[in-house]
Amino acid sequence: SAGLLNGTLMSLFAFELPPVDFLYSIQGVILAEMTVFTPLVMRPLMAGLRQIDKSQLEAASILGAHPLRVIGQVIFPAVLPALMAGGSLCLLLTTNEFGIVLFIGAKGVNTLPMMVYSKAILESDYSVACMIALINILLSLGLFMLYRLAAARTGVRR
User: Fold this and answer.
1) Looking at domain 23-154, does it have CATH number 1.10.3720.10?
2) Residue 155 phi/psi, 5° resolution?
């Protein structure tokens, strides 16, 4: 019954249990991570949008380009580097996120950092925890190298 949405729905429809239960669930983790990491994508994206030359947009519209074509051929290529940078940063951080999953308390959500925590702190199995941490590091490095490869192919400056 906690929260504005659950309180309203419970009073309007006489639910006995809260109809929306994000806490302790994968949906809660996804919602929390979206809330935390959206600015990491939006800040570079907004900077990329600010750098678009307005004369290009005006020229496209004067020449009769449909707004969707302007988006696809002028705006999207201009902001692609910023979108790739923000998206890859977000992906790297979400794969290594520990605090949100622990804070939400989603016991069914098993991420690599949660596995390291579980093996090291709860089970004192340090060798397995180190192996999982190594896998996590290799995955992060692989994702970073994939970003660098994609950035090199699209002509993104480092």
Assistant:
1) yes
2) 85, 25
CA distances from 158 to 17, 26, 42, 148 (A): 52, 35, 19, 9
How many CB atoms neighbour CB 110 within 10 A?
A: 10
Residues 101 and 64: beta-carbon distance below 8 Å: no
The 10 Å Cβ neighbour count of residue 37 is: 19
Question: Is residue 154 over pLDDT 70?
Answer: yes
**pLDDT, tens digit, 9 for 90 and up, residues 97-122:** 888 888 887 777 888 898 999 899 99
Q: Sign (positive/negative) of CA torsion 70, 74, 76, 79? A: negative
Is the Cβ–Cβ distance between 78 and 48 less than 8 Å? yes
Is 104:24 a contact under the CB 8 Å cutoff?
Answer: yes
What does the pLDDT average to over 37-47? Answer: 93
CB 30 within 8 A of CB 38: no
User: Domain segments of the chain: what residues?
Assistant: 23-154
Task: Say which DSSP state 23 is in.
Answer: T
